[in-house]
């Protein structure tokens, strides 16, 4: 009998066809297997018993990196085969594919990399069916060598024999060796002359420069990184200057998990995350910190990660831990083209360690942490993209969700699969806008998605909204708009299949339905509907976008609202601006409250990077808690106005200021503020539950990346009988907005609204 078997899921780029061929041959089945668009198609001849066993194995026993979502079997026209073979790919199945993300170097390849008797000894671009670049080098589907940038390299006889054989490089599309594959080079300038070394000498020279205190741009799997020794204060400061990054902590790339354990306590869940195929940067609590202060400053956490590429491993084996950060200037897109990296030789770096395998899709390192055993993402990029997020609802027609301006990331929805772009950066940068448009065009082509509607934020000044308007008009499709914090809550609903919930959305800014700046919101959400049940009371803040950067200015606005006096020279100017309503907006923002409190306590006055002052407040509170300091008792008074609960942020700030003026310990006040915020969240949710009967709570928005606040809210809400949900598949910050927008867009489709 002959059958056609269609397998959907992550089944391309992971050695799935060789796996199928081995399984079929072992069962004495004959036939063929091929990539067919975004799926794998098998035509098989043999007994029904053997066929059933093959389907069972395809569903339950898969190669590393593969994920089988669906196996469908249908009778086919009788056909005879001479054995079982892998045949040429087709582009016939038009279903949106599930493509693998880039995969970290596997243990088997590492053993070969370190084996002097292996022909791939110290080959910096070693890979097999289980590891190596995938999405970052993909031109189109189906995934074959000729549809990747590896098509530029003809296989030598030895590699071709492995490719056609039955080992772990059978049909490995990135197969190469020192004789036939991409080559590494180390380039530097000697006076005005550019010099270069090739092959292993290039790697050895890069090691020498790093050990001597140099800064080197290293080409990773999906972009360039700037690297230097974390022990060398001068080198790290030079790296900061090259990147234009004044104070934000750097991540450190470690050679092994044991090396990480020597510096940071690591839980089993954190170990699993560090060693996962995504290889994200994981934020760990600092233990013994041997590095110079310029790496992470006063931060109580250190971002650590393990190597993704064999080239990184070669450097780390010789140098030990290295600071590794994307080579772009802060706020601009990743550097992934060689000519961009070579431009850094103009006094910014001491050398460029490159290779000639072209990168098509730049992917930054993903960033995550573990809170109460759950993974919480801050940035979703390499290792996660382009895996789709599955929604609990299906779209009638393809949708494009634009996301927001900060943490830019869009999503393409086909059926119930949302394909999120990588983290692109902040869209106020023109180069990032260009990258957004290029990435959109590329993903639409690869995933065969043609959006019938565009969904965006309601903020009239967002670049993402401007782009959405241009796209909708150009394509002649509807433009739908959803409120910022509603999208945050909806993203959690989509992840956890919540039909209804209380959405607690805390962040810095979001355009409110009344034109005010929201950011401390309690929303009752059901399907596409949202009711604002409670929020922080409004407070006038002047300065516009400057308020997000200058926490001391924000604190002056809070002091004015609280009726305080202040000797700051700007205080009278703030008073006049507020009275005259010059560049002033009403804020209900928890993010701005964190900034104001941090500045009031003298912990942080300026956000050199997003959330710096809030982090200083959290660190002070955590230090006080661990030192056994008793928190100062503070509270948010609740009142009602027009049927909506008002949370008195001005009153809270006034209480805190009075204690501070009397000499209360800043750490005790910072801890008291966190305690008060967590208790307020519980009190408000309790009142909403009493009114609506809703017991499910979604905590969302960038403020909830504060570990102390999040854990206190979780503990108190759960102790009060609430079921609490968080973003786990998408970032807690604005990187989740596209998911929420897509989810709401489906409901708006169903209801025929916009």
What would you say this structure looks like, in words?
With 754 residues, the chain is an alpha/beta fold. The protein has four domains: 2-86, Alpha-Beta Plaits (2-Layer Sandwich); 184-355, DHBP synthase (Alpha-Beta Complex); 368-497 and 737-751, 2-Layer Sandwich (Nucleotidyltransferase, domain 5), CATH 3.30.420.360; 500-729, 2-Layer Sandwich (Nucleotidyltransferase, domain 5), CATH 3.30.420. 34% of the residues lie in helices and 23% in strands. It has 23 helices and 31 strands. An eleven-stranded mixed beta sheet has the order 7-6-14-8-9-13-10-12-11-15-16, sandwiched between helices. Strands 23, 24, 25, 26, 27, 28, 29, 30 and 31 form a nine-stranded mixed beta sheet that branches. Strands 17-20-19-18-21-22 form a six-stranded mixed beta sheet, with helices on both faces. A hairpin with a 2-residue loop joins strand 6 (184-190) and strand 7 (193-198).
Outline the fold blueprint.
Blueprint: E1 2-10, H1 16-26, E2 30-36, E3 39-45, H2 48-60, E4 67-75, E5 84-86, H3 107-113, H4 157-164, E6 184-190, E7 193-198, H5 199-211, E8 216-219, E9 224-228, H6 233-243, E10 251-253, H7 257-261, H8 268-274, E11 281-285, H9 293-296, E12 301-305, H10 310-319, E13 322-326, H11 338-342, E14 351-355, E15 367-371, E16 374-379, E17 389-390, E18 399-401, E19 411-414, E20 417-420, H12 430-447, E21 453-457, H13 463-475, E22 479-482, H14 484-496, E23 500-511, E24 517-526, E25 529-536, E26 539-542, H15 546-549, H16 551-561, H17 571-580, E27 584-589, H18 590-600, H19 612-626, E28 638-641, E29 644-647, H20 649-661, H21 666-692, E30 696-700, H22 707-719, E31 723-726, H23 737-751
Parallel strand pairs: 2-5, 8-14, 10-12, 11-15, 18-21, 21-22, 23-30, 24-27, 25-29, 30-31
Antiparallel strand pairs: 1-3, 1-4, 2-3, 6-7, 6-14, 8-9, 9-13, 10-13, 11-12, 15-16, 17-20, 18-19, 19-20, 23-24, 24-25, 26-27, 28-29
Helix pairs in contact: 5-10, 14-23, 16-17, 16-18, 18-19, 18-20, 19-21, 21-22
């Amino acid at each position: 009998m002959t059958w056609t078997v269609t397998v959907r899921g992550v089944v391309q780029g992971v050695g799935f066809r060789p796996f199928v061929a081995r399984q079929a041959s072992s069962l004495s089945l004959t036939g063929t297997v091929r990539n067919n668009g975004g799926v794998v198609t098998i035509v098989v001849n043999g007994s029904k018993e053997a066929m059933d066993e093959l389907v069972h194995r395809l569903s339950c026993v898969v190669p590393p990196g593969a994920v089988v979502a669906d196996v469908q079997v249908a009778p086919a026209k009788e056909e005879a085969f001479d054995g079982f073979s892998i045949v040429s790919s087709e582009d016939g199945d038009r279903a949106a594919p599930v493509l693998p993300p880039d995969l970290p170097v596997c243990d088997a390849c590492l053993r070969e990399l370190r084996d002097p008797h292996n022909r791939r000894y110290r080959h910096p671009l070693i890979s097999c069916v289980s590891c190596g670049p995938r999405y970052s080098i993909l031109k189109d589907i189906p995934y074959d060598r000729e549809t990747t940038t590896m098509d530029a390299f003809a296989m030598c006889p030895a590699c071709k024999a492995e490719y056609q054989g039955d080992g772990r490089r059978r049909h490995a599309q990135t197969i190469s060796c020192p004789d036939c594959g991409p080559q590494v080079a180390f380039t530097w300038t000697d006076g005005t002359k550019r010099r270069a070394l090739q092959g292993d000498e290039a790697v050895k020279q890069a090691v020498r420069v790093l050990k001597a205190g140099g800064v080197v741009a290293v080409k990773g799997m999906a972009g360039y990184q700037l690297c230097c020794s974390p022990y060398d204060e001068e080198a790290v400061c030079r790296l900061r200057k090259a990147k234009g990054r004044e104070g934000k902590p750097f991540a450190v790339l470690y050679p092994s998990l044991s090396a990480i354990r020597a510096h940071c306590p690591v839980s089993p869940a954190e170990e699993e995350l560090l060693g996962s195929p995504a290889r994200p940067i994981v934020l760990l609590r600092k233990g013994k910190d041997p590095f110079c202060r310029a790496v992470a400053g006063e931060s109580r956490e250190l971002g650590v990660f393990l190597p993704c590429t064999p080239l990184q491993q070669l450097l780390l084996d010789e140098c030990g831990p290295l600071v590794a950060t994307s080579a772009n200037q802060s706020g601009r897109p990743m550097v992934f083209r060689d000519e961009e990296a070579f431009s850094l030789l103009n006094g910014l770096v001491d050398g460029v360690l490159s290779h000639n395998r072209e990168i098509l899709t730049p992917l930054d390192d993903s960033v995550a942490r573990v809170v109460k055993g759950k993974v919480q993402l801050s940035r979703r990029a390499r290792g996660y993209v382009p895996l789709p997020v599955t929604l609990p609802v299906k779209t009638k027609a393809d949708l494009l969700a634009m996301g927001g301006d900060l943490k830019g990331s869009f999503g393409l929805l086909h059926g119930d699969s949302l394909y999120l772009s990588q983290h692109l950066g902040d869209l106020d940068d023109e180069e990032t806008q260009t990258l957004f448009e290029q990435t959109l065009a590329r993903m639409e082509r690869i995933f065969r998605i043609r959006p019938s509607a565009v969904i965006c934020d309601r903020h009239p000044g967002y670049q993402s909204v401007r782009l959405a308007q241009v796209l909708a008009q150009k394509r002649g499709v509807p433009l739908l708009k959803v409120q910022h914090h509603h999208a945050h809550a909806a993203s959690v609903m989509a992840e956890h299949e919540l039909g209804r919930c209380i959405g607690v959305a805390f962040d810095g800014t979001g355009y409110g339905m009344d034109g005010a700046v929201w950011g401390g919101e309690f929303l009752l959400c059901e399907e596409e509907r949202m009711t604002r049940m409670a929020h922080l009371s409004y407070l006038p803040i002047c300065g516009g976008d400057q308020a997000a950067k200058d926490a001391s200015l924000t604190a002056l606005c809070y002091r004015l609202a609280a009726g305080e006096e202040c000797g700051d020279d700007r205080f009278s100017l703030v008073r006049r601006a507020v009275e005259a309503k010059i560049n002033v907006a009403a804020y209900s923002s928890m993010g701005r409250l964190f900034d104001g409190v941090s500045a009031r306590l003298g912990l942080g006055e300026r956000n050199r990077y997003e959330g710096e002052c809030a982090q200083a407040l959290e660190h002070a509170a955590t230090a006080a808690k661990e030192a056994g300091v008793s928190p100062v008792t503070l509270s948010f008074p609740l009142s009602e106005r027009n049927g909506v609960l008002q949370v008195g942020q001005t009153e809270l700030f006034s209480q805190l200021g009075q204690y501070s003026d009397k000499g209360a310990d800043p750490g005790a006040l910072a801890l008291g503020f966190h305690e008060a915020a967590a208790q307020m969240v519980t009190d408000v949710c309790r009142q909403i539950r009493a009114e609506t009967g809703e017991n499910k709570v979604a905590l969302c928005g960038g403020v909830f990346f504060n570990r102390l606040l999040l854990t206190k809210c979780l503990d108190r809400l759960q102790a009060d009988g609430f079921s609490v949900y968080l973003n786990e598949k998408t970032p807690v910050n604005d990187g989740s907005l596209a998911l929420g927008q897509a989810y709401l867009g489906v409901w708006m489709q169903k209801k025929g609204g916009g």
